[in-house]
Structures are given as structure tokens and as C-alpha cells.
Amino acid sequence: MQDMALRKRKDGLMTPLAREFFATIHPNYLSVAALVVGLTSAAAIAGQQLGLGFALWILNRGLDGLDGAVARAHNKQSDFGAYLDLLLDFVIYLAIPLAFIRIAPTGLNMWAALVLLSAYVLNLLSWTTLSTLLEKRRMGSPGRLTGVEMPAGLIEGAETILFYSLFFLLPAHIGLLFGVLALLVFITAGQRVIWAYRHLT
């Protein structure tokens, strides 16, 4: 919901860094580095080192923002790079909740995680199927934030970062946080269904 507004601020911070220090580094390498850091964060959670896990999570998000800035600053944008960036993001989005379940496998937490992962699946279907139809109709937005079209919704990148940070800061309430995030993701999927009905019929 806040991604478009935050994009300019993020680029304002990262573009000078990208231009100065990352001219010789391909953005895809940064995407893979972000994956490694994110998986290490999940491993730290599983080892009950939440402070280290949180620091690595923040570093993961920083690298995830940097790869796009490097691509734009040095004209290295590609469809594969956009695809890889999104795919690896979702690997981390799945790995971190599973790592929290590893250290707090209560019945409530397990069910809440299952509902959250189900919400992710539904949201991805609502988004990627719609994106394909928009590309087919050439209804893409030139100012879009990702390599594929994604109509705005309640839960986007900024809100996901917030909730995942709360997982680290409030681990005793992980089941509740999973449940609230799942509800908001379901609402986001519903928003896209309504958007599709209004624009594709």
C-alpha cells in the first residue's frame, strides 16, 4: 500500500550508493546474495538467535532494494532479473515463518502458519493470473514497481517488512501476528479480484 510512496525515498538513498560502488557488480548477484543472507536469517531463527536473525533480515531487505537500484543506475535491467528478484523474495517470505514454527511448534502457531501460507498461495494466484491478463491486453503501467504488473493492494512490500520485523520483536505473539497478516493478505487478494472485475469485464 505504501510501496509507491516509499519508492522515491528508497531510490534517493540507494541510487548514489549503487552508482558509486556497484558499477561492476551485476544486480542478479545481489539478488542471490540477498537469498543467502535471508536463508541464514532463517537458520539463525531456527537456532533461537533472534537478534542475529533480525539483523540478517534487515540486511536481506537492504540487498533486495539495492539490486533494483543497481540495475536502474547502470542500465542492467532485464526480465530475468525481475523474475529472479521476485522468486527469491518469496523463498525468504516462506522460509522465515517456517523457521519460527521450528522454535515454537504449538498447535495455534502451526494452524496460523498454515493459514498464512494458504493466504500467500491465493494472493499469488490472484496477482500472477491478473498480471498475465493485463500483459495480454497491454494494460501495463509504465510506473510499475516490479517486473510484472501488480495492482496496488493492502499488503505490499513495506507492510510485509513491518510484519516480519514484528515476528522478531514479538516472538511470543507469533501465532497472532501470522493470523493478522494472513487476514490482510486475504483482503489484498480480494481487492485484486474486485479490481479485475471492474477493469476486465
CATH architecture: Up-down Bundle
Count of helical segments?
7
- Structural domain count: 1
How far apart are the first and last residues' alpha carbons, in Å? Answer: 25 Å
| Low-confidence region ranges | none
Number of strands: 0
Q: Output the CATH homologous superfamily.
A: CDP-alcohol phosphotransferase transmembrane (TM) domain
Could you tell me the radius of gyration in angstroms? 17 Å
SSE order, one letter for each helix or strand: HHHHHHH
Q: Could you estimate the helical fraction of the residues in percent?
A: over 70%
Largest sheet: none
What best-fitting shape do the alpha-carbon axes yield? flat
Could you report the average pLDDT, rounded to the nearest whole number? 87
* Name of the CATH class: Mainly Alpha
